[in-house]
Amino acid sequence: xxxxxxxxxxxxxxxxxxxxxxxxxxxxxIDRNEKIEPKxxxxxxxxxxxxxxxxxxxxxxxxGQLPEGNWITRAPTLExxxxxxAKVQDEAGHGLYLYSACETLGVSRDELLDMLHQGKMxxxxxxNYPTLNWADIGAVGWLVDGAAIMNxxxxxxxxxGPYARAMVRICKEESFxxxxxxxxxxxxxxxxxxxxxxxxDALNRLWFPSLMMFGPPDKDSVHSAQxxxxxxxxxxxxxxxxxxxxxxMPQMEYLGLTCPDPSVKWNEDKGGYDYTDPDWxxxxxVLRGNGPCxxxxxxxxxxxxxxxxxxxxxxxxxxxxxxxxxxxE
Length: 329
Description:
Distance between the termini: 49 Å
Helix content: 55-70%
């Protein structure tokens, strides 16, 4: 998922007897699987939690452009260059959809980006890892977008209407992104010995960081219960991580690649794979800003914001001029 460790506002799930009449009506609407819309009444904690989750999701989309955008000029063929360019453009669009959804909750895009730049909002830990060669671009599409889709498909059912509707288009485009990544991995895995080694190396480095995308184990995820009661979150971290492993292992075997986790094996009793958890100390260190690329990623985003000030100023001047002309008519 592109939103990790989202702290739910409030003190926990309330019993019906602890809710106000308005809160009980709100919860009943969610329990009937009805969507909450921007003009509907909602608890302040629900609004705050959504802002944190959707904001982090939006930030992850635009920061996620950076490791792939770095390879647009170095793609091996013109076709691959055009595909990667379209993918990076899609990610910008996903950020736009999500910032727009977040704005319906009463927070501006400028405020969200300011919180990102000040370190008050996070983005997905996966984007603090480098893309060292072309095989990494394949692994990002296959594993990272695959992990994202695993959660985002469920978010089409989330309780907040603008968020759920944004996810419909995002999921369609992310499916293309995953296929693009798997296509690259297939080409590398069936290529020369050097290409096969590159594909295996990319898998080795990105497998466990991809598992981290779903967040910490359920036993350590203290904020999930309220988010699930509000249907902001549909599945637990461990449920989604298990689905991802179960889906990805057959794909890995088809490519002829070896899983970096030597203990992974099929468990007939549970109908899924047993696997080793990632290093959660590493996960929390990356979230604290101590990953391989944290400083580089944030510097790039802040530079883009500062260098784009003249564009924003020009657009605002044009909008104000147009509004004044309309008002004068």
